[in-house]
């Protein structure tokens, strides 16, 4: 009898140990899966490129020149190094501001303004563009690695002094 009881007790101990090992392995696998998911999500957030257009204003000056004022905010996780702007007016008229360097680069969380210097100011307004004209403005920002992000905004040309 004693040998039977001893065998039963040793098997019970082995089963408890096996259960503990299985639960420990399962906990490690689950923890590794959660860590991998969170790590990839954080990585995606840090590497995505995006920006927000805070303001766009186009002014038609009395001398026939136009000025564009843009304020952008980098809402992504990459820097931007170039800006290109395209304005589309009535009748399909298009005016393009060629890619211009952003100096220093527009880093994540920072705001950038076009200021009041060429090529954003002092260009000749296309024929038919004046105060009250509706236009579509496309802003393209490019990362140093060549990724291009575009945003479109409708605007109305304002009268400038």
Describe what this molecule looks like in 3D:
This protein has 161 residues and is α+β, with helices and mostly antiparallel strands. The chain folds into two domains: 1-47; 51-159, Immunoglobulin-like. The protein is 29% helix and 43% strand. It has one helix and nine strands. The strands form two sheets. Strands 1, 2, 5, 6 and 9 form a five-stranded mixed β-sheet that branches. Strands 4-3-7-8 form a four-stranded antiparallel β-sheet, with no helix packed on it. 16% of the residues are buried. The mean pLDDT is 87.
In short:
The chain is an alpha+beta fold and 161 residues long. The protein is 29% helix and 43% strand.
Keywords:
single chain; 161 residues; alpha+beta; Immunoglobulin-like; 2 domains; five-stranded mixed sheet; 1 helix
The N- and C-terminal alpha carbons lie at a distance of 109 Å
Helix and strand element order: HEEEEEEEEE
Strand count, sense and barrel status of the largest sheet are: 5 strands, mixed
Structural class given helices, strands, pairing?
alpha+beta
Radius of gyration from the alpha-carbon trace, in angstroms: 31 Å
Average pLDDT:
87
Fraction of residues in β-strands: 35-45%
Number of strands: 9
Total domain modules? 2
Helical content stands at 25-40%
List segments where confidence is low: pLDDT < 50 over at least 5 consecutive residues: none
**Molecular shape:** rod-shaped
CATH homologous superfamily of the largest domain? Immunoglobulins
CATH class assignment of the largest domain: Mainly Beta
Give the number of helices: 1
């Amino acid at each position: 009898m004693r040998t039977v009881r001893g065998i039963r007790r040793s098997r019970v101990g082995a089963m408890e140990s096996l259960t503990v090992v299985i639960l420990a392995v399962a906990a490690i696998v689950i923890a590794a899966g959660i860590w991998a998911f969170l790590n990839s999500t954080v990585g995606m957030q840090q590497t995505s490129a995006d920006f927000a257009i805070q303001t766009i204003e186009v002014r038609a000056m009395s001398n026939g020149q136009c000025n564009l004022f843009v304020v952008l905010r980098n809402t992504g996780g990459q820097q931007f190094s170039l800006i290109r702007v395209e304005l589309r007016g009535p009748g399909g008229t298009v005016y393009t501001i060629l890619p211009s360097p952003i100096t220093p680069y527009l880093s994540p969380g920072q705001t950038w303004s076009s200021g009041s210097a060429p090529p954003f100011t002092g260009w000749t307004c296309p024929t038919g563009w004046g105060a009250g004209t509706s236009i579509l403005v496309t802003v393209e920002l490019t990362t140093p690695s060549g990724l291009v992000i575009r945003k479109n905004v409708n605007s109305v040309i304002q009268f400038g002094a």
